[in-house]
Write the structure tokens for this entry.
Amino acid sequence: MRDVVIRPAVEADVPSINAIYNEYIVGSHVSFDTGAWGDEDRLEWFRDRVSRGYPVLVACDGDRVIGTSWSGPYRPKKAYRRSVETTVALADGVSGRGIGTTMHAILIDHLKAAGFHRAYAIIALPNDASIALHSKLGYREVGTLDESGFKDGKFHSTMMMELALDR
Ligand SMILES: CC(C)(COP(=O)(O)OP(=O)(O)OC[C@H]1O[C@@H](n2cnc3c(N)ncnc32)[C@H](O)[C@@H]1OP(=O)(O)O)[C@@H](O)C(=O)NCCC(=O)NCCS
């Protein structure tokens, strides 16, 4: 954790954010995207998030972006606008040092300051590390959607975890 800086992302971070997340899209079930994103699409995504007030953070070790934690709309219909969906992902080889927990705790602080009401983590199973991280930060399990995703020839269930931001 020493020397790791956690800060709001800027446009120059977008290729690194994209590379980190693409690893999980292509190499695992933890993201339900099914194909890697190009940097241009991720930049458009980033501008949209930031312009709508959804925090996007990065963790940096020197010049290198080693992780990201972001928020976005939970669902598109207007009545959901005080709720967010959150995520956190680290570059290969960085896990197990508390960086994910620290970065996501800071994202939660940003969400509280912005006045959001509820945060939801939607975790494709299995993912013990993600469940441990979210539980540690106060998220509680609210249910599991059985086999709600199909990726790489297999069904995956998703666990919904909820955090009250304004309590
Ligand atoms: C999930 C992820 C962000 C965790 O980040 P991290 O920096 O390794 O997490 P931390 O070091 O802060 O550890 C958080 C807790 O998880 C626990 N944990 C870590 N890996 C674990 C594992 N494989 N099984 C069970 N618990 C685990 C740690 O022990 C720690 O709890 P503790 O402090 O009580 O010991 C990281 O593993 C990752 O990037 N995973 C791939 C992307 C992903 O799945 N993101 C979540 C999408 S919902």
In short: The first strand starts at residue 4 and ends at 8. The CA atoms of residues 82 and 116 lie 5 Å apart.
